[in-house]
Amino acid sequence: MKKMSPAASDRVRTLSGARPIAAAPGSRPSGSLRVKSPMEDIASQSRSILEHTFCHFPGIGLKTERHLWERGLSTWEDLVEWAAKAAGHGQLSRAAALVEESREQLCAGNAEYFFERLPTGQQWRAFSDFKERVAYLDIETTGLTPQYDYITTIALYDGRDIRVYVHGRNLEQFASDIRRYGLLVTYNGKCFDLPVIERQFDIRLPKAHIDLRYVLGSLGFKGGLKGCEKRFGLGRNELEGLDGYFAVLLWSEFRRTRREEVLETLLAYNVADVLSLETLMAHAVNLHLAQMPFGNLLAVDVPSGRANPLTPDGAVIESIRRRYFYHR
């Protein structure tokens, strides 16, 4: 039996260890925001997308929001000033109170407040304001029927630290760790990852959740996570061609052999998913912003791509391919 190298064993142990996670960042300034023409002033005043968003206010839909933008009302402060001059215009008469409430919730770091009010297809707008509290999340399971299926590994990445959780080792720790985050980003998590997690751990995950399957799908990017990665030029090196079914086989192999290099290969695959979510999220936000009149001034930085700290074992991958695929 091939033994895992000390360095590789340390990598898995470190990632799955109980290291502290930084607390949520502090509150943000709530001072008034005044944006005047030219439109370039937007970039110098605020990079917050939410502070340029009106469609979460009662009575203001996407068409009305765009109409307000075209009239030169680009920020919450602009809306308050304009509504004061146009007193009595329905919901706009409450603009000052609505803006103040939004500011309070933004300062409090309450992402759920905005997710409950933004149209479903516009919830991506909250990302830049809450990205310091984001958790990119992906799970792997046994692939069995719901009655017998269970989570085998979980990868969590917050833009700084990578954490992995393994069934039979530290999986239960996930339930407490995830409470430190206010925004979740997944791919197909709405239908799969989140319901499975909530059922297995009997917990309630944050309502603030961006599912890139739908955010990217609305932009014309389909074909699953791997398909979207290819559209944006993201590669997987030794993990190229592996999918969810292969992850199921890796777990089965690990249970049978208890070889640590098999587990590291599975975890490397799991971690690769969450690392790509960060890059795809930034691309999705910028592509949506490009459809807004001043969106290019609010664009978020696209990360160059964090290196995967875990190393897949080529021999393990080849062995499973020969056993399950090549004879077909």
Q: Into which percent range does the helicity of residues fall?
A: 40-55%
* Total domain modules: 2
Low-confidence stretches: 18-45
Distance between the termini: 27 Å
Under CATH, the topology of the largest domain can be stated as Nucleotidyltransferase, domain 5
Shape summary: elongated
The main pleated sheet reads as:
5 strands, mixed
Please identify the top-level CATH class of the largest domain.
Alpha Beta
- What count of helical segments does DSSP give? 14
What is the total tally of β strands? 5
Structural class of the helix and strand makeup? alpha/beta
What does this protein structure show overall?
The protein has a 5-stranded mixed sheet with strand order 3-2-1-4-5. It has 328 residues and is of the alpha/beta class. The chain folds into 2 domains: 7-16 and 137-324, Nucleotidyltransferase, domain 5 (2-Layer Sandwich), CATH 3.30.420; 41-128, no CATH class. Helix content is 42%, strand content 8%.
Give a short synopsis of this structure.
With 328 residues, this protein is an alpha/beta fold.
Sum up the structure in keywords:
328 residues; alpha/beta; Nucleotidyltransferase, domain 5; 2 domains; five-stranded mixed beta sheet; 14 helices
Task: Indicate the topology.
Layout: H1 6-15, H2 41-45, H3 62-70, H4 76-85, H5 95-107, H6 111-115, H7 127-130, E1 134-141, E2 151-157, E3 162-166, H8 174-177, E4 183-186, H9 193-201, E5 209-211, H10 212-217, H11 224-231, H12 244-257, H13 260-289, H14 314-324
Parallel strand pairs: 1-4, 4-5
Antiparallel strand pairs: 1-2, 2-3
Helix pairs in contact: 12-13
